């Protein structure tokens, strides 16, 4: 009986020559890239799969090559790292078992045939995946955000990093004890987080439909839980550096750890803040129900407390650079530190503004009761003083880029900046 080989794969036999295994690569763009990577193995669109360059190649970069079909990749048996992001792949063929790193982000993938048994890094974000195959027991890093996943496969005990944000996940599997980073934001159907492993140092669970957080690991450094419906936070870890809890239903915050440097707690219903740690550098607490502020740390760099009925600001630290104190029912401002560069104090009941620091580059004091401005610093670039009963402006520095004084009684300009 006469036997024939498949069109794509043939054994070329000539008298006195060894057997040569060949494969016809179907994708023209893949052919073009292979002709540059393994030129000795390519004859037109035919790949010599026995060529040493094919068998020993350990890294292949096909990023942005316009490839639709990777058929032929299975013959690169020594391949350990494959970068094929930014193409037009809809499916991933069976891959060589030696591959440890697979970067296939930014394609149109809807499925994988399987994953290599030795895979440690998988980057498959920004595709159209609705599910993942079983994850190999060696996997350490999984990046699968920006897909259509409704669930994740069982997670191997080796995994340390998961980035599964911006999917349609309805829950998360049990988290292994090895996990250090979990980024699952923008999955509003998750509803409840599983128990968090003790190794976790970063948790990002913004917009996950949460009403509560589980107990937080003692070693957690970074916590992002914005845009949920959380009414109360658990005890905070003693080493926490940053917490973002904007857009929840919080009425109070727990005791803040002494290590905290960044706190975002805006758009809640908080009526009072706890004592602020001396390490705090950024405090963003706008749009709450705060009737006052506690003493501010000496190292504070930014204070954004607008849209709160604060009434009176505490003493401002010498370190402060940026102050947003708009719509705060203020009738006066405390002394402004020399380091201040940006001041927003519009929509209050101020009748005057204290001496302005020389570093100030922006002043917005619109919608107050100010009748006279103090001397303007020589480096000021933006002045907004509209809707105030001001009759005359002070000398304008040459550094000014913009002056807005509409809705005032200004009838004279002492000078025009040049």
Structure at a glance:
The protein is mainly β. Helices cover 4% and strands 17% of the residues.
Number of helices: 2
Helix and strand content put the structural class at: mainly beta
The geometry reads as: elongated
Radius of gyration: 31 Å
- How many E-type strands? 24
Distance between the termini: 97 Å
Round the mean pLDDT to the nearest integer and report it. 94
How much helix is in the residues? under 10%
Low-pLDDT segments: 1-19
**Biggest sheet, open or closed, and with what strands and sense?**
18 strands, parallel
How much beta, percentage-wise? 15-25%
Task: Tell me which oligomeric state these chains represent.
Answer: single chain
Order of helices and strands: EEHEEHEEEEEEEEEEEEEEEEEEEE
Description:
- The protein is mostly beta strands and 418 residues long.
- The longest helix is centred in the first third of the chain and has 10 residues, at 28-37.
- 4% of the residues lie in helices and 17% in strands.
- Residues 1-19 have low confidence and may be disordered.
- The strands form 3 sheets. The protein has an 18-stranded parallel sheet, with no helix packed on it. It has a 4-stranded antiparallel sheet with strand order 1-2-4-3, covered by helices on one side.
- A hairpin with a 7-residue loop joins β1 and β2 (20-24).
- The chain starts with 8 loop residues before the first strand and ends in a 14-residue tail after the last strand.
- The chain has helices at residues 28-37, 52-56; strands spanning 9-12, 20-24, 42-43, 46-48, 59-61, 81-83, 91-92, 101-103, 111-112, 121-123, 141-143, 161-163, 181-183, 202-204, 222-224, 242-244, 262-264, 282-284, 302-304, 322-324, 342-344, 362-364, 382-384, 402-404.
